[in-house]
Amino acid sequence: SYSQCWLVYNSIDNYKDKDLLTDLHIYYEKDNALSNIMNNIIKELTQGLNSILNIKISANIIDGKETSSSIKSGIVLGLTGQNVINDIADTEQLTEEGYLLKEANQCIYIIGKTEKGLLYGAFDLLRRIATGEGIRGLKVIENPKNTLRMLNHWDNMDGSIERGYSGESFFMKKEEILVNQRTIDYARIVASIGINCVVINNVNVRGSAATGLITDRYLNKLKEMAEIFEGYGIKLYLSANFAAPMEIGGYKTADPLDQGVADWWKECVQNIYKIIPGFGGFLIKADSEGRPGPFTYNRTHADGANVLARALKPFGGLLVWRCFVYNCQQDWRDYKTDRARAAYDNFMGLDGKFDDNVILQIKNGPMDFQVREPVTPLFGGLKNTNMILEVQAAQEYTGQQKHVCYLIPMWKEVLEFNTYAKETNATIADIVSGKTYNQTHTGMAAVSNTGDDFNWTGHDLAGANLYGFGRLSWNTELSSEQIAAEWIKQIFPHKDKVYKAIMDILMGSWHTYEKYTSPLGIGWMVNPNHHYGPNVDGYEYDRWGTYHRANRNGMGVDRTKAGTGYASQYNEPNASMYEQKETCPEELLLFFHYIPYDYKLKSGVTLIQHIYDTHFEGVQEVEKMVEEWNGLEGLIPEDIFQRVQKRLTIQLESAKEWRDRINTYFYRKSGVDDAKKRKIYY
Ligand code: BDP
Question: N or C: which end of the chain has fewer CB within 10 A?
């Protein structure tokens, strides 16, 4: 069994606008059978309203060609273009997936241009009701800001999940594809927050089973999954192996400029679309961390992406190509090479060389999902390329879903970052939504944090990251608080104390995590491989390119012109801002500069004292979280209370370990005592 996340539809008493929800009327072309999407909308609305308000309604289908309406009250659903609907509101502003919700004459209208729009409108209405919001006088037009709202699952064919902290895969097990009730509930849950593209398998496509997902061995089963997804407006995507023509095709090369390779991909893709006409496309990780790619053949990433894109093109498929390309065999002795430079160095020269159905998927930071990184400069550089932002909902470096770390505030900062690529409209949100350069394929992708655990996300509070990603990718302007508020109210009883405690815990959690882990943007002080828990020198003399450069005088990586030159990859005025210690935002100081321990920060304390102080504060903040959570006993569902309480205990222990390891390490390196005379070393 498993939870329904934010679709639990808890019952609420005394909902004041219940009288508007008497019936469900659906305008539909009578000669057509209801589509899967329409059936799902009906199911969702009838079950949802029944569960929340104890209202029993059934759908009344009305011929869409009808010209007059005798409807007295209730929900009215219809596409634009149907006579009766057109009278109700001006729907010109609606885009493909948008919807209009409007109350008029005792009716709640849900109007869309497409059935997908209606689906999102229905989920929006249910969300408002579930959170207790009134719907009288309602009038909203919602169009998604991004066309691609994508989840990347890193699920392996054996059922394990790379960087998965919530159990095993619910998409695959023992090299077989799973299609069952959970597939349906997954689709409902993610569709309700606007997700419309899902990649079900790991970007590291290793072995013949994963590589063979694009062949007849799996396509018929995948077709069943794709049909379920389609009923919720979701397109199925697959991660593909760049060397598939060799590994499963038995061909002599995977050279993208070889005609045989191009033909192989064409045939492969034709076959996929024959079986799954609504297939979305491929996601590719190439030339990265051991994955094959075009570099082997002295070809560019544009050559590599385009050969696949051309195979997909006739069917409207998209090719998503990741920019996480760097040399993972660097030399830590060499202060001039810098992994942070890699995405920009590898891709800037290719701007404009990608086909129009290629999309570059770029991680938010130049390194790898650390608790604090600057925004990658690549977004501010590329001008003639489709780009989407990749974030990681899976908390690989942010506590692995044992710690609470609400990531929406981090993603908001990324989205609001001004790249200065143009004078106006040049934030990351503008760039990835196509506002800056008018690209067609734009949006956001998240590495999913789900698995087959009862609550889907291991930590119940990690559900807010999944929820928030969907909502944010739909509307990048929502605030972190708004998103948290919606999430809390859909899941927990509507009580002030509950709301306040959970809101506090979520909203402070990212900064708290940052305080007791690695300071001022330096990152990486984790145990190698699994990446959980402190290990200051874990990667320091390794080849992955992730260093803190601490010695007895100070620490930090010099990324100015005197150092690796990374800061110059930004547009002005950002480049100069990062170049100078004085103007560099302090939370990123050690990312850009080597700083002596006695350097005075703006707060007046020295760098070393700041490290000690924040590590004590971080632990205190976790103690406060534990206290707040304990105060919820009896007020929220017992199982959630227990699960979270258990994880908070683990978090507190781990936070103390971080504090003591970091403080001890830097005390021993620097020899500087704590000004407040606390115990800082062991
Ligand atoms: C890193 C993960 C690794 C992924 C890689 C990626 O440690 O497991 O394969 O990113 O994004 O964060 O490809």
Answer: N
Regarding the beta carbon of 203 and ligand 1, being less than 6 Å apart is answered yes
pLDDT of residue 84: 77
> Ligand 1 atom closest to Cα of 390?
11
Phi then psi for residue 512, to 5 deg, are -60, -50
- Range list for CATH 3.30.379.10 in the chain: 5-142
Distance 60 CA to ligand 1 centre (A): 49
pLDDT in tens, 40-72: 999 999 999 999 999 999 899 998 887 777 888
Active site residues: 289, 368, 396
Pocket probe mutation, ligand 1, options 396, 524, 542, max atoms within 8 Å of Cβ: 396
CATH number of 5-142: 3.30.379.10
For the residues 428-457, what does the mean pLDDT come to? 96
Q: Are 575 and 582 spatial neighbours (Cβ–Cβ below 8 Å)?
A: no
pLDDT band at 81 (very low <50, low <70, confident <90, very high): confident
Residue of 160, 363, 368, 530 with the most ligand 1 atoms within 8 Å of its CB, for mutation: 368
Domain with CATH 3.20.20.80 in the chain: 148-489
Residue 554 Cα to ligand 1 midpoint, Å, equals 30
Q: What is the chain's length?
A: 682
φ/ψ of 283, rounded to 5, equals -115, 135
CB atoms within 10 A of CB 22: 14
Say if residues 277 and 320 touch (Cβ distance below 8 Å): no
Whether 336 shows a pLDDT value over 80: the answer reads yes
In sequence order, the 6+-apart residues with CB closer than 8 A to the CB of 434 are 146, 147, 440, 442
Write the residue with the smallest CA distance to atom 2 of ligand 1: 163
Report the DSSP beta bridge partners of residue 197.
150, 235
CA of 431 to the centre of ligand 1 (A): 24
* Whole-model pTM over 0.90: yes
State the fold for domain 515-557+594-670: Alpha-d-glucuronidase, C-terminal Domain (3.90.1330)
Q: Is 328 in the pocket of ligand 1 (CB under 6 A)?
A: no
Cβ 369 under 6 angstroms from ligand 1: yes
The pLDDT value given to residue 182: 98
Q: Is 558 in the pocket of ligand 1 (CB under 6 A)?
A: no
The answer, yes or no, to whether any atom of ligand 1 lies below 6 A from the CB of 446, is no
Token readout for 303 is: 């050559």
Residue range 613-666, pLDDT digits in tens: 999 999 999 999 999 999 999 999 999 999 999 999 999 999 999 999 999 999
Q: What share of the chain is helix, strand, coil (3-state, %, to 5)?
A: 40, 15, 45
Q: Which CATH class is domain 148-489?
A: alpha beta
